[in-house]
Protein backbone atom coordinates (compact mmCIF):
# COMPACT_ATOMS: atom_id res chain seq x y z
CA UNK A 1 0.00 0.00 0.00
CA UNK A 2 1.65 3.20 -1.20
CA UNK A 3 -0.14 6.30 0.09
CA UNK A 4 0.83 9.51 -1.68
CA UNK A 5 2.08 12.34 0.52
CA UNK A 6 1.68 15.09 1.62
CA UNK A 7 -1.61 14.87 3.46
CA UNK A 8 -4.71 16.94 4.08
CA UNK A 9 -6.01 15.78 7.47
CA UNK A 10 -9.81 15.39 7.61
CA UNK A 11 -11.17 15.71 11.16
CA UNK A 12 -14.90 15.76 10.44
CA UNK A 13 -16.90 17.12 13.37
CA UNK A 14 -15.44 14.98 16.16
CA UNK A 15 -16.35 15.90 19.71
CA UNK A 16 -12.91 15.73 21.37
CA UNK A 17 -9.17 15.43 20.79
CA UNK A 18 -9.05 11.68 21.44
CA UNK A 19 -11.53 11.05 18.64
CA UNK A 20 -8.91 12.51 16.28
CA UNK A 21 -5.98 10.57 17.74
CA UNK A 22 -5.03 9.12 14.35
CA UNK A 23 -4.62 12.61 12.92
CA UNK A 24 -2.74 13.81 16.01
CA UNK A 25 -0.41 10.83 15.87
CA UNK A 26 0.47 11.42 12.22
CA UNK A 27 0.93 15.17 12.78
CA UNK A 28 3.14 14.58 15.83
CA UNK A 29 5.43 11.99 14.25
CA UNK A 30 5.28 12.95 10.55
CA UNK A 31 4.69 16.74 10.61
CA UNK A 32 6.44 17.18 7.28
CA UNK A 33 3.65 15.19 5.62
CA UNK A 34 0.75 17.21 7.10
CA UNK A 35 0.15 20.36 5.05
CA UNK A 36 -3.21 21.29 6.54
CA UNK A 37 -6.47 20.17 8.10
CA UNK A 38 -10.09 20.36 7.03
CA UNK A 39 -12.79 20.49 9.71
CA UNK A 40 -16.56 20.55 9.68
CA UNK A 41 -18.68 22.86 11.80
CA UNK A 42 -18.60 21.87 15.47
CA UNK A 43 -15.28 20.02 15.31
CA UNK A 44 -13.58 20.09 18.74
CA UNK A 45 -10.20 18.78 17.56
CA UNK A 46 -7.38 20.96 16.24
CA UNK A 47 -3.96 19.78 15.04
CA UNK A 48 -2.51 23.26 15.19
CA UNK A 49 -1.85 23.30 11.43
CA UNK A 50 -3.54 25.52 8.81
CA UNK A 51 -7.23 25.07 8.06
CA UNK A 52 -7.50 24.69 4.29
CA UNK A 53 -10.27 24.42 1.77
CA UNK A 54 -10.04 21.62 -0.75
CA UNK A 55 -8.92 24.05 -3.42
CA UNK A 56 -6.21 25.48 -1.17
CA UNK A 57 -5.05 22.01 -0.22
CA UNK A 58 -4.60 20.96 -3.84
CA UNK A 59 -2.84 24.23 -4.67
CA UNK A 60 -0.40 23.60 -1.80
CA UNK A 61 0.41 20.14 -3.13
CA UNK A 62 -1.68 17.81 -0.95
CA UNK A 63 -2.16 14.44 -2.61
CA UNK A 64 -4.19 12.43 -0.09
CA UNK A 65 -7.04 13.29 2.25
CA UNK A 66 -6.54 11.22 5.42
CA UNK A 67 -9.65 10.46 7.47
CA UNK A 68 -7.78 10.93 10.75
CA UNK A 69 -10.48 9.93 13.21
CA UNK A 70 -11.50 6.94 15.31
CA UNK A 71 -14.84 5.98 16.80
CA UNK A 72 -16.56 3.02 18.38
CA UNK A 73 -17.04 0.40 15.69
CA UNK A 74 -14.93 2.27 13.13
CA UNK A 75 -17.94 3.57 11.22
CA UNK A 76 -18.00 6.42 8.71
CA UNK A 77 -20.82 8.86 9.61
CA UNK A 78 -23.24 9.38 6.75
CA UNK A 79 -22.86 13.17 6.82
CA UNK A 80 -19.12 12.83 6.11
CA UNK A 81 -19.65 11.03 2.81
CA UNK A 82 -20.31 14.22 0.84
CA UNK A 83 -17.09 15.76 2.22
CA UNK A 84 -15.05 12.75 1.10
CA UNK A 85 -16.68 12.73 -2.32
CA UNK A 86 -15.80 16.42 -2.63
CA UNK A 87 -12.17 15.58 -1.84
CA UNK A 88 -12.11 12.97 -4.60
CA UNK A 89 -13.72 15.43 -7.01
CA UNK A 90 -11.00 17.97 -6.12
CA UNK A 91 -8.30 15.52 -7.20
CA UNK A 92 -7.25 13.95 -3.89
CA UNK A 93 -6.86 10.28 -3.04
CA UNK A 94 -8.52 9.27 0.24
CA UNK A 95 -7.06 7.07 2.99
CA UNK A 96 -8.92 5.87 6.06
CA UNK A 97 -8.15 3.88 9.18
CA UNK A 98 -11.78 3.12 9.98
CA UNK A 99 -13.17 -0.40 9.93
CA UNK A 100 -15.65 0.37 7.15
CA UNK A 101 -14.10 0.10 3.70
CA UNK A 102 -14.30 3.30 1.70
CA UNK A 103 -15.16 1.36 -1.44
CA UNK A 104 -18.17 -0.23 0.24
CA UNK A 105 -19.94 3.15 0.14
CA UNK A 106 -21.31 3.52 -3.38
CA UNK A 107 -21.03 7.31 -3.60
CA UNK A 108 -17.36 7.18 -2.61
CA UNK A 109 -16.52 4.23 -4.87
CA UNK A 110 -18.20 5.89 -7.86
CA UNK A 111 -16.46 9.23 -7.23
CA UNK A 112 -13.07 7.52 -7.00
CA UNK A 113 -13.59 5.66 -10.25
CA UNK A 114 -15.00 8.73 -12.02
CA UNK A 115 -12.00 10.84 -11.03
CA UNK A 116 -9.29 8.19 -11.28
CA UNK A 117 -8.43 8.47 -7.59
CA UNK A 118 -7.15 5.84 -5.13
CA UNK A 119 -8.92 4.65 -1.98
CA UNK A 120 -6.74 3.26 0.82
CA UNK A 121 -8.23 1.27 3.71
CA UNK A 122 -5.26 1.16 6.07
CA UNK A 123 -7.04 -1.00 8.63
CA UNK A 124 -7.47 -3.85 6.17
CA UNK A 125 -4.58 -6.06 5.07
CA UNK A 126 -4.53 -8.35 2.06
CA UNK A 127 -1.98 -10.58 3.86
CA UNK A 128 -3.09 -14.08 4.83
CA UNK A 129 -1.99 -14.95 8.37
CA UNK A 130 -1.40 -18.30 10.06
CA UNK A 131 -2.59 -19.05 13.56
CA UNK A 132 -0.04 -18.18 16.22
CA UNK A 133 2.36 -20.93 17.23
CA UNK A 134 3.88 -19.46 20.40
CA UNK A 135 7.29 -20.97 19.61
CA UNK A 136 10.21 -18.97 20.97
CA UNK A 137 11.93 -17.07 18.14
CA UNK A 138 15.25 -15.20 18.11
CA UNK A 139 15.38 -11.49 18.82
CA UNK A 140 14.18 -9.30 21.68
CA UNK A 141 10.72 -7.77 21.93
CA UNK A 142 9.07 -5.09 24.02
CA UNK A 143 5.31 -4.57 24.14
CA UNK A 144 3.51 -1.48 25.44
CA UNK A 145 0.44 -2.39 27.51
CA UNK A 146 -2.15 -0.16 29.14
CA UNK A 147 -4.51 0.46 32.00
CA UNK A 148 -6.95 1.57 29.28
CA UNK A 149 -7.18 2.27 25.57
CA UNK A 150 -5.87 5.63 24.27
CA UNK A 151 -3.29 6.13 27.03
CA UNK A 152 -0.11 6.50 24.95
CA UNK A 153 1.02 2.99 24.00
CA UNK A 154 1.92 4.03 20.45
CA UNK A 155 3.73 7.19 21.57
CA UNK A 156 5.72 5.24 24.15
CA UNK A 157 6.84 2.66 21.58
CA UNK A 158 7.79 5.35 19.05
CA UNK A 159 9.68 7.36 21.69
CA UNK A 160 11.56 4.22 22.73
CA UNK A 161 12.47 3.43 19.12
CA UNK A 162 13.83 6.93 18.58
CA UNK A 163 15.88 7.06 21.77
CA UNK A 164 17.14 3.49 21.57
CA UNK A 165 18.39 4.09 18.04
CA UNK A 166 20.10 7.28 19.18
CA UNK A 167 21.86 5.26 21.88
CA UNK A 168 23.08 2.59 19.49
CA UNK A 169 20.43 -0.10 19.85
CA UNK A 170 19.22 -2.05 16.82
CA UNK A 171 15.51 -1.30 17.25
CA UNK A 172 12.36 -1.06 15.12
CA UNK A 173 8.84 0.14 15.86
CA UNK A 174 6.19 -2.41 14.87
CA UNK A 175 2.76 -0.95 14.17
CA UNK A 176 -0.38 -2.80 15.20
CA UNK A 177 -2.93 -0.01 14.63
CA UNK A 178 -3.99 2.20 11.76
CA UNK A 179 -2.18 5.30 13.03
CA UNK A 180 1.05 3.40 13.49
CA UNK A 181 0.77 2.05 9.95
CA UNK A 182 0.30 5.59 8.63
CA UNK A 183 3.39 6.70 10.58
CA UNK A 184 5.72 3.80 9.85
CA UNK A 185 4.52 2.77 6.42
CA UNK A 186 4.15 -0.86 7.47
CA UNK A 187 2.39 -3.08 9.97
CA UNK A 188 -1.03 -4.60 10.56
CA UNK A 189 -4.13 -3.17 12.23
CA UNK A 190 -4.59 -6.06 14.64
CA UNK A 191 -8.16 -5.21 15.61
CA UNK A 192 -9.26 -5.88 12.01
CA UNK A 193 -7.74 -9.38 11.95
CA UNK A 194 -10.06 -12.38 12.43
CA UNK A 195 -9.71 -13.45 16.06
CA UNK A 196 -8.12 -16.86 15.36
CA UNK A 197 -5.23 -15.19 13.54
CA UNK A 198 -4.39 -12.23 15.83
CA UNK A 199 -1.40 -13.87 17.51
CA UNK A 200 -0.20 -15.18 14.16
CA UNK A 201 -0.39 -11.72 12.63
CA UNK A 202 1.76 -10.34 15.46
CA UNK A 203 4.28 -13.11 14.92
CA UNK A 204 4.31 -12.08 11.24
CA UNK A 205 5.05 -8.39 11.93
CA UNK A 206 7.76 -9.31 14.45
CA UNK A 207 9.56 -12.30 12.92
CA UNK A 208 12.75 -14.02 13.99
CA UNK A 209 15.60 -11.52 14.15
CA UNK A 210 19.19 -11.09 15.26
CA UNK A 211 19.48 -12.01 18.97
CA UNK A 212 20.36 -8.40 19.89
CA UNK A 213 17.62 -6.78 17.79
CA UNK A 214 14.66 -5.13 19.56
CA UNK A 215 11.16 -5.00 18.11
CA UNK A 216 9.12 -2.33 19.91
CA UNK A 217 5.56 -3.51 19.45
CA UNK A 218 2.67 -1.07 19.71
CA UNK A 219 0.06 -2.28 22.19
CA UNK A 220 -3.71 -2.07 21.74
CA UNK A 221 -6.58 -1.74 24.21
CA UNK A 222 -6.16 -3.25 27.68
CA UNK A 223 -6.41 -6.71 29.17
CA UNK A 224 -8.99 -5.16 31.54
CA UNK A 225 -11.19 -3.42 28.95
CA UNK A 226 -14.41 -5.38 28.34
CA UNK A 227 -14.54 -4.21 24.72
CA UNK A 228 -10.95 -4.84 23.66
CA UNK A 229 -9.37 -7.39 25.99
CA UNK A 230 -9.59 -10.12 23.35
CA UNK A 231 -7.39 -8.16 20.97
CA UNK A 232 -4.99 -7.26 23.78
CA UNK A 233 -4.55 -10.89 24.83
CA UNK A 234 -3.94 -12.14 21.30
CA UNK A 235 -1.43 -9.35 20.80
CA UNK A 236 0.36 -10.26 24.03
CA UNK A 237 0.65 -13.93 23.07
CA UNK A 238 1.85 -13.18 19.54
CA UNK A 239 4.31 -10.50 20.62
CA UNK A 240 5.97 -12.96 23.02
CA UNK A 241 7.56 -9.97 24.76
CA UNK A 242 10.71 -10.19 26.82
CA UNK A 243 9.83 -6.80 28.32
CA UNK A 244 6.79 -4.59 28.65
CA UNK A 245 6.06 -0.97 29.55
CA UNK A 246 2.81 -0.08 31.33
CA UNK A 247 1.06 2.99 29.92
CA UNK A 248 -1.35 5.02 32.05
CA UNK A 249 -3.48 8.18 32.07
CA UNK A 250 -3.76 9.34 35.71
CA UNK A 251 -6.90 11.49 35.58
CA UNK A 252 -9.31 8.74 34.51
CA UNK A 253 -11.49 6.84 36.95
CA UNK A 254 -13.37 4.66 34.44
CA UNK A 255 -12.21 3.06 31.22
CA UNK A 256 -12.95 4.90 27.99
CA UNK A 257 -16.40 4.17 26.58
CA UNK A 258 -17.54 1.90 29.44
CA UNK A 259 -18.41 2.18 33.14
CA UNK A 260 -15.78 -0.23 34.42
CA UNK A 261 -13.25 1.25 36.85
CA UNK A 262 -9.67 1.75 35.73
CA UNK A 263 -7.37 -1.06 36.91
CA UNK A 264 -4.32 -0.20 38.95
CA UNK A 265 -0.83 -0.34 37.48
CA UNK A 266 -0.11 -3.22 39.85
CA UNK A 267 -3.14 -5.09 38.46
CA UNK A 268 -1.85 -4.62 34.92
CA UNK A 269 1.65 -5.82 35.80
CA UNK A 270 0.32 -8.92 37.53
CA UNK A 271 -2.11 -9.85 34.74
CA UNK A 272 0.38 -9.15 31.94
CA UNK A 273 3.01 -11.38 33.55
CA UNK A 274 0.47 -14.12 34.29
CA UNK A 275 -0.92 -14.16 30.75
CA UNK A 276 2.34 -13.43 28.95
CA UNK A 277 4.16 -16.40 30.49
CA UNK A 278 2.24 -18.68 28.14
CA UNK A 279 4.55 -17.72 25.26
CA UNK A 280 7.50 -16.19 27.13
CA UNK A 281 8.16 -17.35 30.71
CA UNK A 282 10.80 -14.62 31.09
CA UNK A 283 8.45 -11.66 30.50
CA UNK A 284 9.08 -8.72 32.86
CA UNK A 285 8.13 -5.03 33.28
CA UNK A 286 10.84 -2.45 32.53
CA UNK A 287 9.04 0.86 32.98
CA UNK A 288 5.91 2.96 33.35
CA UNK A 289 4.87 5.54 30.76
CA UNK A 290 2.37 8.11 32.02
CA UNK A 291 0.48 10.64 29.92
CA UNK A 292 0.75 13.70 32.21
CA UNK A 293 -0.67 16.19 29.74
CA UNK A 294 -3.45 17.19 32.15
CA UNK A 295 -1.01 17.86 35.04
CA UNK A 296 1.25 20.80 35.84
CA UNK A 297 4.93 19.93 35.65
CA UNK A 298 5.56 19.83 39.40
CA UNK A 299 2.53 17.62 39.98
CA UNK A 300 3.57 15.38 37.09
CA UNK A 301 7.07 14.90 38.49
CA UNK A 302 5.72 14.09 41.97
CA UNK A 303 3.40 11.47 40.51
CA UNK A 304 6.19 9.88 38.49
CA UNK A 305 8.49 9.79 41.51
CA UNK A 306 5.75 8.15 43.59
CA UNK A 307 5.04 5.52 40.91
CA UNK A 308 8.74 4.75 40.50
CA UNK A 309 9.09 4.14 44.25
CA UNK A 310 5.88 2.14 44.52
CA UNK A 311 6.67 -0.24 41.66
CA UNK A 312 10.48 -0.13 41.64
CA UNK A 313 10.40 0.79 37.95
CA UNK A 314 11.48 3.89 36.02
CA UNK A 315 8.43 6.10 35.45
CA UNK A 316 8.25 8.92 32.93
CA UNK A 317 6.11 10.82 30.45
CA UNK A 318 7.78 9.84 27.14
CA UNK A 319 6.69 13.01 25.34
CA UNK A 320 7.38 15.44 28.18
CA UNK A 321 10.45 14.00 29.89
CA UNK A 322 11.90 11.40 27.53
CA UNK A 323 12.53 7.70 28.03
CA UNK A 324 16.18 7.50 29.10
CA UNK A 325 15.30 5.89 32.43
CA UNK A 326 13.44 3.05 30.71
CA UNK A 327 16.24 2.60 28.16
CA UNK A 328 18.73 2.44 31.04
CA UNK A 329 16.66 -0.34 32.65
CA UNK A 330 16.47 -2.24 29.35
CA UNK A 331 20.23 -1.95 28.89
CA UNK A 332 20.89 -3.19 32.42
CA UNK A 333 18.39 -6.07 32.39
CA UNK A 334 19.31 -7.40 28.94
CA UNK A 335 23.04 -6.63 28.86
CA UNK A 336 23.89 -10.29 28.31
CA UNK A 337 21.13 -10.99 25.77
TrEMBL record:
Gene3D superfamilies, per database record = NAD(P)-binding Rossmann-like Domain, P-loop containing nucleotide triphosphate hydrolases
Pfam families on file: DUF1611, DUF1611_N
Start and end residues of each D-glutamate N-acetyltransferase-like C-terminal domain:
131-327
Task: Show where the D-glutamate N-acetyltransferase-like N-terminal domain sits.
Answer: 40-124
Q: Supply the NCBIfam families for this chain.
A: DgcN
Name listed for the protein in its UniProt record? EBNA-1 nuclear protein
Amino acid sequence: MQIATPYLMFLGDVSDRLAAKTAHGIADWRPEWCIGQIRMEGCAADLGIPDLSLTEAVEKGCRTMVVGVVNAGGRLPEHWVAEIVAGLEAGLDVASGLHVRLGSISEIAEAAQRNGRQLHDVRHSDERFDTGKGTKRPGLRLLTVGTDCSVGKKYAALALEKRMRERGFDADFRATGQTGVFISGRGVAIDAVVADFISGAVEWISPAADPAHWDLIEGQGSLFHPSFAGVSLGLLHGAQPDAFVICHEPTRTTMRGVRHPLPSIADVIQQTVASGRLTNPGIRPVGIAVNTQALEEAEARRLLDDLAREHDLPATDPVRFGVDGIVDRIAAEFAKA
